Input
Amino acid sequence: MDAKMRHEEARFDVELALSKLPDRKRGGWVTFPFIAGNLLFMGIAMGGANANLIVYLIQKFGMESIDAAQVSNIVNGCVNLTPIAGAIIADSYFGCFSIVAVASFIAFLGMVLFTLTTSLPSLRPHQCSKAATTVSCSGGGPSTSQIAVLYSALALMVIGGGGSRFTNATLGADQFNTARDQDVFFNWYFVVFYVSSIIGSTVIVYIEDNVGWGFGLGICAAVNAAAVVVFLIGRRFYRVTEVTGSPFTGLARVVVASVVKWGVDEEGAEYYYSSKLDGQGTPSQSFRFFNRAAIQVKGDTNPDGTVAKPWRLATVEQVEDLKALIKIFPLWSSSPLLSITIGIQLSMTILQALKMDRHIGGTFSIPPGSVSIGSLASVALTLPLLDRAVYPAFQRYMGRAPNPLQRIGAGHILNFIGMAGSALVERARLRSGPAHLTSVLWLLPPLVVTGVGEALHFPGQVGLYYQEFPEALRGTSTAMISLIVAIGFYMSTAVVGLVRRTTGWLPDNIDAGRVDKVYWMLAVVGMINFCYYVVCARLYKYQNKNKEEVGSEASDALST
Output
């Protein structure tokens, strides 16, 4: 009895000590299992539901194939748009921890409702054909209420799954004090992210196709619940960054104050209001128009030094923060096209797989929704290979590891090469005809090439934005890649719609179309976009060279 009491007292003392740890003693790698666990389980759940969404809409809701692909693109676009909203709210009001916890729970509610659409007959059309290319249902199409429930489930999944995705990455990076540890974290973050997508796109999709939709989606809901629990268990270890207000308000003040002080002469100005004693007395000479926002004139400040008119005076730091965003925008603008091509390739690949021989060894059949495994697996395998072999070899021959801009550029090249490869495969499939089905394995090489490109340009962009964005916008910086992907998926929907209206390349039966010409179009546009990126990269100057150098050292450290 005494031993038990001593054990309980010791456990209480440990918990009390952990609860009283100051923020500077929290964080570190002890938090990684909980953050990565949340990411892993959320990725499995969302991957299992999203990867097979096109097939589910065709088989269970009687949608036509192109319409189902369009819905899937919209869902994927929303999943990648909501992280921006989550990051803004986290940066401005509640912090990363609260956003990840709440978003994970919302995703769980959506997953439960989505499971009910297949488990309860009243929530879906009756007796739809099980053939993936057949869209007829004996009782007609889905009712308005059934569509409302379906879209409500998808909306909750989008808000929850998307809202937690890159806010989780910011929370993880905040646990470390050095750029070296942050780079290592981002590397493993993407490894876990893609591994979870692979599991969801293979194991869960196989269960949905061969055991039952209800059982497969039920597993997704259970795994999502585990993500919430694991994340909350690690709460005592997290270093939570204090939110000091919306940084976007400060940026808006710079614009307003610059306009208001249009006629103020910058020459001879001696006083600039700065919130930090960091030696930054005057703003830089680039985009000099905004410098007026930081000029103090009579009436801008109170006798005690506080700001009297917030919308007439901004800090030097806020002025420089806005300039940093303006300078990086051209680079950012070249990135959405990468996601447009990837989004179209993934949706068209599923439709191609439905028309190809998916059997391996005569018995096993690859589910159409699992074909994207080629891209996901290549990313997951390439990331460690790059950090432990390719980048160190590059450093030995070139004297330093490739910087983020070089990695992104290489990703651009592989992206349009992957589109050209998909065009060649589709042309060969059309020539073989329906009498001699082409093996679905021919779809994998282009997906692998595109996946290797993702392993280069996606982490490269996250690292670049995290280094170059203002410190107050760290959450938003990691979510910028998500905004790029969101724009890409939305634009891919628009591009597919435009192609359908103006050409005969994308009929409902793709055997009668020319998907290969769509791929060739994407390859040509990708080459033009790469040239634009090269111009932007050559003109760009790193805002913080020290961070860039530390990032290179981190890549070197990963190889040892």
In short: The chain has a mean pLDDT of 81.
